[in-house]
Amino acid sequence: MARRRTLEAPDARALAEIEAGFAAKPASGPAALHAPIAQVASEAAQGRDARPATDRATEARTTAEAASWRDARAEGRVIETLPLERIQVNHLTRDRVETDAEAMEELVASIRANGQRLPIEVMDLGEGRYGLVSGWRRVRALALIGTEDGTPPVARAIVRPAVEAGAAYAAMVEENEVRAQLTPYERGRIAAVAAHLGAFPSMEAAVDAIFAAASKAKRSKIRSFATVHYELGDLLTHGRDLTEAAGLRLAAAIRGGFAAKLRDVLEQGAPDDAAQEWVLLEAVLDRMEETPKPAARGGRPRRETPPPLAEAVLPNGARAVVRSDGAKLVLTLDGQGGLSESARRALAERLLAALSEG
Asked: What is the value of pTM for the model shown?
């Protein structure tokens, strides 16, 4: 068994030697000044936000709201107040051809009484400039109010992100279709203009994209009015008053090669109103529709049915007709009354026998 060793406390002399040894070799560096647990506690204290909890909560809420606002503005969900001088009203060719003076007066009075209730829509063009997408009548009313009051006009606006021209035209037309029904000519005109400005590769593509929600038949009519504007738009003074039937007649005439004649009567006639303008156009249309159409080419010529040589009603209710077709003698039975195959064979044999007997 191992012997146990009795530990004895150092005496005063030994303690003095130990203390002298520590003094002769002092530790160096930050770790020598503090114990490890003290260092961890110090670092945790330095990283801790010493502000009150209410201040920290307010800052977190403000940061979250700022991020939400940035997202909403980027998505076009924020209404801002913009000076009209920073808005390019003619950024897009407008689909409305004319403005009713009485309706404009009513809109001005409404905005004066109740303020601008509905915001306009603009496209962010950068450098503090905006392009108008929808709300042309509201912009004009606000400009009139600013001029009358002598104050710089402003508008409440939703700022949309920059998009391609085609989508912008579609948004403008959609807004006007809902708030102020467009006429057939205005629909065709905006499709023709959008295609001419390069927003779409063709008028057909413009109609399909801008009026994607319309039926196939409606888009076909819009294409006809687009053709009318493309050929006659620079001379038509009252295109907006064209009825659907009138526009379709004009489109048919243009496709039939009468565009030049229609342009001539508009240039020489100088009509004063929509009625006079239509009288000039209708004179050309009437002449076109009275012109005999050339016979269709190709295919088999239609053969007239020769008159019957003899006909009779048979006891079973069938009608027998004999016709001469050149060198042929043709017998037809209409309404055979359920004549069976065997009865048909028997009838054929009796005919052959009668012909054989002379």
From this structure: 0.44
